[in-house]
Write a sequence for this structure.
């Protein structure tokens, strides 16, 4: 059973697909899966650069908002421009890992919903090259994630490079387990890799640094860790992590009125506030698998996930102006997946009303994975 995706919703769309009732979302999935079939396997060793360890199997990336100093001949040390992505970041391993995980997600969904091992076979090939094959596999750590040239070779914040990708990947892996395309060594191999990576997340200095963060990095650290704990059959660990979300994350990041000051301080304040709230909602979904109800938690002064979600409503309806910095364009359509998940989890009338007011996207994948 998947952990964030809704099993019954998947079954419903599978029945529709097999009966030839192709919704816009199923049509879009078939197109996305076709594109994924043309994506050749990639490896962490494909990079031209050598990690400080001297082992190309170690993942490398640089901080997205760090740029060469124009006042220095060699540009070092890099300087920060929050919210402005340095295109040189795409020379590193994240430029291969992110699309590979995305393609595996589409392939796994297509394999399950269209009942075709063709998609699963390619997904399994992509996974073997990146995670399992001795010659090409990534070492299960992010010691050199989000380096800052001239300052450090890697930081704990680099863990966010995998937080979204691996959380989505876990559900894809669950769907692929039922396919004949996966060999007898694929499933245990992936579980071993993810267990080793989770151990590194929880025990390494960089992992502990990220777990001690006070913003979206902390939220997404927990989201990734709980998803991996569930996938690797460690429910007690998942429950311990989920129980800690209450006082460590909700009580410290969400104000009594629902605002999230750490995200509002960013130059992309609207995007980061939405991102962090989505992380909290995913944490609530994951935590239900270990009987922890994060929706029910509230501090004495009223901080809770509901407040974070409802805080957006007057801005969505243009009843209040957005007064914080937002460098790039932001559209209300971006809120749709969040409210779709929230309605499915809470079934509250005000959330349903807001969802009905947001621009819909019938081709969005959320239509296949969420009620």
């Amino acid at each position: 059973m998947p952990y964030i995706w809704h099993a019954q919703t998947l079954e419903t769309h599978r029945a529709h697909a097999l009966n030839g009732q192709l919704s816009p979302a199923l049509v879009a999935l078939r197109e996305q899966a076709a594109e994924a079939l043309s994506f050749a396997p990639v490896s962490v060793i494909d990079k031209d650069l050598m990690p400080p360890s001297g082992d190309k199997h170690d993942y490398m990336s640089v901080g997205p908002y760090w740029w060469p100093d124009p006042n220095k001949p060699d540009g070092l040390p890099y300087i920060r421009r929050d919210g402005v992505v340095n295109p040189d970041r795409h020379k590193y391993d994240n430029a291969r890992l992110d699309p590979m995980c995305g393609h595996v997600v589409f392939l796994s969904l297509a394999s399950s919903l269209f009942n075709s091992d063709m998609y699963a076979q390619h997904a399994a090939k992509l996974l073997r090259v990146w995670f399992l094959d001795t010659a090409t596999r990534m070492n299960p750590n992010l010691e050199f994630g989000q380096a800052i040239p001239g300052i450090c070779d890697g930081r704990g914040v680099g863990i966010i490079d995998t937080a979204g990708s691996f959380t989505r990947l876990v559900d894809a892996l669950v769907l692929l387990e039922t396919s004949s395309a996966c060999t007898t060594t694929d499933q245990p191999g992936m579980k071993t890799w993810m267990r080793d990576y989770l151990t590194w997340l929880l025990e390494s200095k960089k992992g502990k640094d990220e777990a001690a963060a006070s913003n979206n990095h902390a939220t997404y650290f927990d989201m990734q860790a709980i998803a991996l704990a569930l996938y690797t059959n460690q429910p007690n660990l998942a429950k311990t992590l989920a129980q800690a979300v209450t006082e460590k994350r909700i009580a410290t990041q969400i104000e009594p009125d629902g605002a999230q000051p750490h995200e509002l301080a960013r130059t992309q304040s609207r995007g980061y506030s939405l991102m962090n709230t989505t992380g909290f909602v995913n944490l609530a979904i994951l935590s239900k698998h270990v009987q922890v109800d994060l929706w029910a938690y509230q501090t004495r002064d009223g901080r809770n996930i509901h407040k974070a979600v409802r805080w957006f409503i007057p801005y969505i309806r243009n009843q209040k102006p957005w007064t914080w910095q937002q460098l790039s364009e932001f559209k209300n359509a971006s809120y749709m997946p969040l409210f779709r998940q929230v309605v499915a989890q809470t079934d509250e009338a005000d959330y349903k009303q807001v969802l009905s007011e947001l621009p819909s996207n019938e081709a969005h994948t959320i239509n296949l994975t969420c009620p």
